[in-house]
Target: Helix-turn-helix domain-containing protein
Amino acid sequence: MKSPAVVSELAAPFSMALPTLMHHLHVLEDAGVISSQNHGRGRTVSLRPGALDVLHLWLGERRTPAAHQADRLGMHLTRTTSKET
Model:
């Protein structure tokens, strides 16, 4: 796991105002995804261990039905294309 990130460093690659980024970080903190701490004049944020595990499981459950649907669509398109040639 990487060390905590300084908010100003996180903001650097984005073209948004720092208060806007702070709002997004507060939403993530309220959701329990990150934690933050004041260090002098700066603020650092860290990803909470295991915070995204539930999301990972939820996405995994939905991946299988979506994959089956995509497979069926692929077979249909293959059959349709074969009949046209």
Summary: Residues 34 and 40 are 19 Å apart (CA to CA). Helices lie at 7-11, 18-30, 53-84.
